[in-house]
Fold each of these.
Amino acid sequence: MFIEPKILKGFRDSLPSAEIEKRGLIEKIETLFRSFGFVPIDTPALEYAEILLGKGGGETEKQVYRFTDNGGRDVALRFDLTVPFARFVAEHRVPMPFKRYHIAKVWRGENAQRGRYREFTQCDFDVIGVDNAGGDFEILLMIDSALKALGVGDATIRVNHRGLFNQFLTRLGVQEKSGEVLHLVDKLAKVGRGAVLEGLTKTVGGAAEKILDFIESKGRFEDVLAKITEMAGEKATVHAERLALLHKFMKDAEASASLVLDPSITRGLDYYTGVVYETFLNGLPEIGSVCSGGRYDDLAGLYSKEGVSGVGASVGLDRLIAAQEALGKPRTQSSYVHVVVACMDEAMFGVYQNAARKFRDAGVNCEVLLKKTDKLAKQYILAEKKGAAWMVVYNGGVFTLRNLKTRENKSFQSAEEAVKAVLSGGVERELRKNDAFS
Amino acid sequence: MFIEPKILKGFRDSLPSAEIEKRGLIEKIETLFRSFGFVPIDTPALEYAEILLGKGGGETEKQVYRFTDNGGRDVALRFDLTVPFARFVAEHRVPMPFKRYHIAKVWRGENAQRGRYREFTQCDFDVIGVDNAGGDFEILLMIDSALKALGVGDATIRVNHRGLFNQFLTRLGVQEKSGEVLHLVDKLAKVGRGAVLEGLTKTVGGAAEKILDFIESKGRFEDVLAKITEMAGEKATVHAERLALLHKFMKDAEASASLVLDPSITRGLDYYTGVVYETFLNGLPEIGSVCSGGRYDDLAGLYSKEGVSGVGASVGLDRLIAAQEALGKPRTQSSYVHVVVACMDEAMFGVYQNAARKFRDAGVNCEVLLKKTDKLAKQYILAEKKGAAWMVVYNGGVFTLRNLKTRENKSFQSAEEAVKAVLSGGVERELRKNDAFS
């Protein structure tokens, strides 16, 4: 019996170098989330289809992996982390305000175009149970800090306010068309002005030009805010004040992010009701928003009588990885190892591992090679490929430490002395990441 | 429309305190894997059913979540990490020997008994592409080190050799019944001597007593080894030598684990061919093996023409968590936060976050509270619940730092001075884990 080893379309394996890169990014993001006081949660990959698709239908339903389990239950794989979070909040009494992050896989049977996978990792972070500018601002600051931590260069965070936009549509008398208008407006960057104008004219007739004037407002934050507030009328004042506060907080916090008020940002999804965010890398705007989100005010509404207001965003991990590659950051790390112990005699693995343990106990990652080679040089080459900085060769009671970069050897009477020499040579986990030993 | 927020039977949410505990264990295990030079990989949750069930059928098939996707493909959720690894190895050219770890969820539609979940996390680590005592020993040492790193107290690692056992069965002339015999023997601890003897007698007649004598051998490693080697006959010598080397390496490496040669350990699974391991906590043997594995010599055989020998084990994360609770280790950590900034005025979030950023930049996790309270004391209580050690109250240009344990306050003219005071007070991420501030 032979089975061809194939993988499903739209799915992929993660080889060590890719997985090390991905984990590196996730660890940085997670450290950041924790530093803001956010706590992790997890939910099942599989849920009742009714729970996941309650609001859904349409586009979502077509993409979902849905089936009947062995117990006859109608189940589905989660397609995002927001719907399970809503169910989670309705089911558990969490202390409010509640700041949570959730980094996990989701599945969508989308057409597997370039860069679109059917299995991908989402990194969501939300504050729920409070509706004020402090919450909106915290998410904004976290987006800014996350991009800094990931070292992807300068970025521009574009914000807008869905409530203000809706107020404007109400004033124009086209509020009942808001869903269609939002969908059309959301495509501005993709399909261009002409196509949006055509679509809008079909939908709202003469109001189309005014809507375009609104969403195309450009300039300083204060100026755009003044213009769209005036267009939206008096009832929009409360939303305008929220945006003004956000802008003020950025300055007070000495945040360096470039914050732009862009009325064309609407985030197609229906559930946003307040501030919305999209984030573009200045060096690579064409890959689209790498971190998006916004405020919603009825998170758990489907599963609970109490509406819960919240604000959050999601880091586009796969886009950021693609960005790092496009920006020419090479994926160099092939392991986490600092020191490699050579294999000279297969009867000596106990001694090799004893020496290796002394490195590990000192925080130095140390691998014992498991195969003898005809020439020791082959083991040097292998160690270098792994990205190690040093090699230990044990022979006749002597530990020889080889600096794989300078090719200098130094001998010691004990493993402890070799560990000391490596430590004084400044090996630290972080150093390797900085390519000091690459 | 209202949907009852319910979760599938055998599945569960992970609330922050449980998730923080779990991530803490995973981070320790992962640090250990990396320190041995192991690299991470990942594979899809969903694969062709043919790939996952190729060898399977029977018990496995009944438990698998299998369905037809929207493209008409026969697919299934992975039920372990070994089968996907075999497919991975057949599909990718990885440098051998290859040392990998894989920490990921798997799904089995098992009867949801006590402690049995349908979704759980596996932590697998394997060395493939080399068949020597050095590989067997490395896995043994990693089991020992992992349990030390997790702080679950003393453990006993029980080993045996499937090749030696099979040689013994061959000598008895019952080798064609080895599958049934292995299944029966594997149940010794669970069902007792009588039931096993009865089953064996039905299967192999008069050989039953001899098999029981073999598997019940007890005593010093050397003595048990001498006895079972003699029982298995001359052809078992090579396997006996492998076990003797393992024992020697443990001494050479000054490993402290209690290593027992236990011929009743067979690991029911068919694919093991060499050394097998099970690990029991001395303080809690009744929960069963918390880390098991062994050597197999045809990992990718189903998907490739080349047989690949390997050895590995799997850490039973859920059992270890249950063990920590049973051993009375309280789950105390409710967040990662060290310092909390009070909310005195909702117009000041920019200033609060600016101060918080200075703590974060110094490696101190700092959360800004988002809601004013009628009394400040309520915010102290909230900060304590989060497990924070300090609170910062900003008022009229002055930063007051409150030690939440001693309830002492100290005032500073700048956030930087408050950061310095906290750092000199020795706040470190690790300290909280040691309950220094609980």
Amino acid sequence: MSETRFDVLGIGSAIVDIISRCEEDLLASFDLVKGCMALTSADKAKQIYDRMGRAVEISGGSAANTMAGIASLGGAPSFIGKVGKDKLGDIFRHEIEAIGVDFHGGRKAEDLPTATCLILVTDDGQRTMNTHLGASTTLGPDDIDEARVAAARVIYIEGYQWDTPKAKEAIRKASRAAKGAGRQVALSLSDPFVVDRHREDLLTLIREDVDILFGNEEEIFRLYHAGDLATAIEHVRGAKVLACMTRGAQGTVVFDGTTTTAVEAFPVDKVVDTTGAGDLFAAGFLYGYTHGRDLLGCAKMGSMAAAEVISHMGARPELSLRELLLKHGL
Amino acid sequence: MSETRFDVLGIGSAIVDIISRCEEDLLASFDLVKGCMALTSADKAKQIYDRMGRAVEISGGSAANTMAGIASLGGAPSFIGKVGKDKLGDIFRHEIEAIGVDFHGGRKAEDLPTATCLILVTDDGQRTMNTHLGASTTLGPDDIDEARVAAARVIYIEGYQWDTPKAKEAIRKASRAAKGAGRQVALSLSDPFVVDRHREDLLTLIREDVDILFGNEEEIFRLYHAGDLATAIEHVRGAKVLACMTRGAQGTVVFDGTTTTAVEAFPVDKVVDTTGAGDLFAAGFLYGYTHGRDLLGCAKMGSMAAAEVISHMGARPELSLRELLLKHGL
């Protein structure tokens, strides 16, 4: 097997987040489901934005956040995603490169703006997301450089990609290239509604190519139409994947064919904004995984990275996760 | 005299700041003068941006920051400035309206991007600014609605405007309209190099229209070619304006024709980023001035507002200045 340049290569939407605190009734007035992601037209996005208070803009995107986390931990990540030919696109690129991620944007979409996500954070720290996909919908097979894919030990795909029509082919190409090169494929389920919308496609990819599956309890339950944890675990075991089921404050359960490993949530003083919690769990886990740690070690790193990101606004780490690792003796 | 709707109407560049910490040697490698503002071509801006680390984007613009401060204090400000037809323009408008400033953008510039300012903050908290003016250069006389100007007790003009060719006429129109309606005109000198570049124009405006002058020690010294404080004060007194000379950690001196009022700098735990210090001094001072406070009271409010803004990154207040006023019994 040839040498690898990257620990993990992420494929996902390149999004700049616009984050604001809000009252619960704002969610209700736009029929938004708390904790979930909704695709939003330009018109509806404008209506929501007009009702939002002061906001901050921070680069986001699920798989991009995971790659930023791996870079902050000291790993070598790469990211493939499409930005528009605009200032927010420049900002996205700058941010991800500045933290140390190899970024491959391919040809820029000429006429579509860089994707934005209006994130409403309620007082309980929960985030509700409204995404206008813009230029990120142009990701297609041409953007997948097979040599680049083969140069990563693991490729990481976000479930959100099934919402962009051309991305399916791109993912197929990437996962085939990865498997052909003897690499591993990780998948994040992203969102309960994403699972509902694309259940069959996701199950097919899991059956054929996925080695590592990330999802929260609700996403994994919906994927397998499971009503309880034991049934869900049985299905995942049947799929022969290594699965990480995040459970918010209840911590995380990791199970493979034979073993079950549970870790508690890492303590945080105050949950400020849960945006990026799942993304950063995956970052910590995959960093450990590609650096020879056992499952318990990987899960602890994931919990630590998730704890950092929920203690402030925005889905990218503010502190050096590398220094936090050392501080906590991980 | 007809009734006023606004305490202060600001006229200035509508800019989104891109702020990053940096080492001293980055300033040297681009020949940047610490603490000053340089106009930057798109090419040079790109070179600087490529060398910057992780950044945050926060709306800025000198007069716009002052109006945001007045809104945060509970006052009624208005702002005239030009953004481009792009996402950063939407963000600028959203931020200034969300804090409570009446925003008048006029017709959007079709082909120019919203102005950005790359701000490099060194470890001593000093900021060095690189502005790409873009759409903000399109401010012209057509954007000045004389009824709006007449509806403000004070209009506030940033010296930076002399760097944009058409703005001179716009300012002339606004200051004439203000004087004609019996209102007052305030001017901020903005930057030592701005004073050098446009000294004669600034002196003419001061002589003919200005009632209140804001500047730091260096700017006022350069304006009058004064070598010491006594000479500078003598010149300002000759110009028959109320002048506020900010002196960083040494506090502020306010003088009119007869009296001199000195206030100490408001205590801060740590100077994180001095961006916006002068802008927020002006906000506090003008809020007090338009609410019947004496000069000492006005200067204390200015010092308090400046202290808040230098204790965090970005040139807009993070805390409610209204609540801080009450807390400090001002």
